[in-house]
Amino acid sequence: MRRSSNPEKHRYNRIAPVYDLMEFFPEKVTMGNWRKRLFSYLPEGRILELGVGTGKNLVLYPENKHLIAVDISLNMIRRAREKKPDYLNVSFAVMNAEELALLSDSFDGIVTTFVFCSVFQPVNGLKELKRVLKPGGTALFLEHVRPGNKVLAKLFDLLNPVVVRIFGANINRTTTRNIKMAGFEIEEEYNLRRDIVKLIIARKKVNEAD
Ligand SMILES: C[S@@+](CC[C@H](N)C(=O)[O-])C[C@H]1O[C@@H](n2cnc3c(N)ncnc32)[C@H](O)[C@@H]1O
Q: Looking at residues 164-190, what average pLDDT do you find?
């Protein structure tokens, strides 16, 4: 489905100035540790960070790493640019996950944290990630997802429209299933907060060039 505008782009452009403030406490208490855990799986080689946001992950990359960091929101990227450590080589670009202007089979690894809750058509975005990843490459995801508990899941479905309106993020995405639907192999899946926040390590099959 094509749309003439991207509401999520406008939402994130709008909340960019207060985004770090909104997440200050969760970041200190839990999210910061979850990010460090994800980065313990960072592969060698060329990395794409999708949905870089205000650049919270940038300090976690090793020195002299070269990465491409993209986001649909220019205002979020502007914040990320300010946070970029001097020792890191980052090319920033405004891009929609669903239409990446990047070569197929060109990255060794992909990092994405709390992004597929807001990509409009997540499976399309995930297919694009798989396209640009080299065969055998690793994609690392930190995502909050729809709970397995049926009652809680219904509650999340009910609350979702309000949360999307305020924060721009869906709280009822079935991201593990979406990752599989896009054709990735799930290598590891860790529950970080019950079964609601997950670290997912996925791989593009070795014999699958795009
Ligand atoms: C919840 S924020 C997370 C930001 C950052 N990854 C973090 O961990 O703090 C979601 C980010 O995804 C970006 N985003 C949403 N939809 C996108 C899309 N279709 N393509 C690229 N980026 C997108 C938003 O602009 C926003 O910066």
A: 94
Q: Tell me, what CATH number does 108's domain have?
A: 3.40.50.150
- Look up residue 29 and give its amino acid: V
Q: What percent of the chain has pLDDT over 70?
A: 97
Going from the C-alpha of 117 to that of each of 65, 105, 145, the distances in angstroms are 27, 25, 8
Residues near 60 by beta carbon (within 8 Å), at least 6 away in sequence: 35, 36, 39
And the tokens for 161? 């429209």
Digit-coded pLDDT (tens) for 121-161: 999 999 999 999 999 999 999 999 999 999 999 999 999 99
The overall average pLDDT reported for the chain is 94
98 lines ligand 1 (CB under 6 A): yes
Return the residue whose CA atom lies nearest to atom 10 of ligand 1: 115
Q: Is residue 47 domain-resident?
A: yes
User: Is the shortest distance between the CB of 71 and ligand 1 below 6 Å?
Assistant: yes
- Ligand 1 site-directed mutation target among 1, 6, 8, most atoms within 8 Å of CB: 8
Whether residue 98 is contained in a domain is answered as yes
Q: How many domains does the chain have?
A: 1
Range of the domain at 100: 7-203
Q: Is 129 in the pocket of ligand 1 (CB under 6 A)?
A: no
96 lines ligand 1 (CB under 6 A): yes
Residue 75 counted as domain residue: yes
**In 10 A of CB 23, how many CB atoms?**
16
